[in-house]
Write a structure and sequence with these properties.
- This is Putative tricarboxylic transport membrane protein.
- Pfam families: TctC (PF03401).
- It comes from Ornithinicoccus hortensis.
- InterPro entries: BUG, Bug_dom1.
- By secondary structure, the chain is α/β, with parallel strands linked by helices.
- The protein has two domains: about 190 residues, Bordetella uptake gene, domain 1 (D-Maltodextrin-Binding Protein, domain 2, 3-Layer(aba) Sandwich); about 110 residues, D-Maltodextrin-Binding Protein, domain 2, CATH 3.40.190.10.
- The protein has eleven helices and twelve strands.
- Strands 1-8-7-9-6-10 form a six-stranded mixed sheet, with helices on both faces.
- Helix 1 runs parallel beside helix 3.
- It is globular and about 65 Å long.
Length: about 325
């Protein structure tokens, strides 16, 4: 199946070129670590999943006095993460830059010449994966997934949306459409609010959204979930079947982790691994996991990157089959 992707990758190419104009990484580290303030890059705009996770981490680190200096948080959004992670790339050799990751961390380099891949950075860890709900308007005629498939297969194509040009949202839509036998036109959005507005206005037939981002609208009856992509039903939405129950097993989830710049000092990597091991044991972290309906999935250093390597291989196959990659 060939999918029509509405929008190009020119904005990503521009973001990559602009990120090269950022800092050159600052000083290399020597002596005791940490001894400087920390520059924390959030590669997406305020209010999204990556932003919420980063700010939750920093709140916990501050609450438990786990970092002796100041932590400067800055949203450096653009190009499906290319701007922010390009900025971190230019901090090569420093232990005083850091960023959280999402699905775009591995999908953006597959579709644009970013000048980096996940392998260029210093891994800290994976902390959680974020599954999604397949959503239609609350007043639509589709009560079940079967209703949706009956409608979609009877159209030349249906218009669906998600966050990012070629991200986990796009891949989920592509997998579901390919297996169910319908064609999609995919429209990417930069933030959740825009996506929801487009769905409710009738510009989109369906979307996928992370549970924590859309649950309020589900409970208000504004939207209707037809499928949850995780392995088990959510307690809060017990009537919504999983993809596996509906015949769509092993659907991908958004990986949420942490990285340091390329060639960060070993002492910096060790410090952040040990610090994050403390963070994930706090009740505040567990509350974040529970309230955002994430699946805790903790892998450290090389195990984290081995997970990303397997995920990249799977995504590359899917995107090539969809005609997005040559």
């Amino acid at each position: 199946m060939r999918t029509r992707l509405i929008a190009g990758v020119g904005t990503i190419a521009l973001a990559v070129s602009l990120s090269a104009c950022g800092d050159d990484g600052g000083s290399s580290d020597g002596g005791d670590y940490p001894s400087e303030d920390l520059d924390w890059t959030i590669a997406f705009g305020p209010g999204g999943g990556n932003d919420i996770m980063a700010r939750t981490m920093v709140d916990i680190i501050d609450q438990y006095d786990l970092y002796p200096g100041n932590i400067r948080l800055e949203n450096r959004e653009g190009g499906s993460g290319a701007t922010g992670w390009g900025y971190l790339l230019n901090q090569k050799g420093s232990g005083y830059g850091i960023s959280t990751t999402s699905g775009s961390f591995i999908t953006t380099p597959l579709q644009a010449d970013t000048g980096w891949t996940y392998e260029d950075f210093t891994p800290v860890g994976l902390f959680a994966t974020d599954d999604a709900l397949f959503i239609v308007p609350g007043d639509s005629e589709y009560e079940t997934w079967e209703d949706w498939v009956d409608y979609a297969t009877g159209q030349d194509s249906v218009v669906v949306g998600g966050i990012g040009t070629v991200n986990v949202d796009f891949i989920l839509h592509e997998l579901l459409a390919d297996q169910a036998g319908y064609e999609i036109e995919y429209v990417p959005f930069n933030e959740e609010g825009q996506l929801q507005t487009a769905l409710l206005s009738g510009s989109l037939d369906a979307t996928v959204s992370n549970t924590g981002s859309i649950l309020g609208q589900v409970e208000a009856g504004e939207v209707r979930p037809l499928m949850f992509t995780g392995p088990e039903r959510l307690d809060v939405l017990a009537d919504v079947p999983t993809g596996e129950e509906l015949g769509y097993p092993d659907l991908p989830a958004m990986p949420r982790g942490m990285i340091l710049p390329p060639d960060a000092p070993a002492e910096a990597q060790e410090f952040w691994v040990n610090t994050m091991k403390e963070v994930v044991e706090t009740p505040e972290w567990q509350e974040y996991i529970d309230s955002n309906y994430l699946a805790e999935n903790i892998l450290w250093e090389d195990d984290f990157y081995a997970f990303l390597g397997d995920t990249v291989a799977d995504f590359e196959t899917i995107l090539t089959d969809a005609g997005v990659l040559e």
